[in-house]
């Protein structure tokens, strides 16, 4: 049983049936006007080192393992992590640098987190994303792909489920768009707005899952 929890902005945790927890892109809360993540990670993944994605100390345990801006493949504690170089902009990183996409495989499911990707993925990255059980992707624009580019990504990758992140919510002090701009474009998937910020991945198929802000 794999549990997905949204901790606001781009921070997502994946908790396995044995309690092992992977945290991706932690923020510190206060710098963004949000609550800090209420989770500790056995494995922490950072897609890039901008302040709103790299607050490792907030979610670290004594023996946490950290992969920061990682490209390649690594097996850690029965979890396979694949990292792919992408860009934070449409200019091959010349404006905002590189961004690392992660595909996490554990307990028979694959979960992809696109970080702050600034362009629609293609080539080997898109091939790896195709058919994942959950595609977690930014939709708020300004610093990342916008709603239309995010939906184009979903249409190309054809994940089992998708989950929008990195969009404006009450309190957030970044100039990005709300999730509704993305949800208006959704076709072929049922949009499920949850009353909580957490869900069991096995309970969903063919959904765009929108957890509540924590």
UniProtKB/TrEMBL annotation:
Hydrolase is among the record's keywords: yes
Query: What name goes with this protein?
Result: Putative Zn-dependent hydrolase of the beta-lactamase fold protein
Can you name the source organism?
A: Thermogladius calderae (strain DSM 22663 / VKM B-2946 / 1633)
Give the keywords, sorted. Hydrolase
Q: What is the lineage of its organism?
A: Archaea, Thermoproteota, Thermoprotei, Desulfurococcales, Desulfurococcaceae
Q: Which residues cross the membrane?
A: none
Q: InterPro entries, from UniProt?
A: RibonucZ/Hydroxyglut_hydro (IPR036866)
**Keyword field contains Transport:** no
GO molecular function terms listed in the Swiss-Prot or TrEMBL record: hydrolase activity
Q: Which domain of life is it from?
A: Archaea
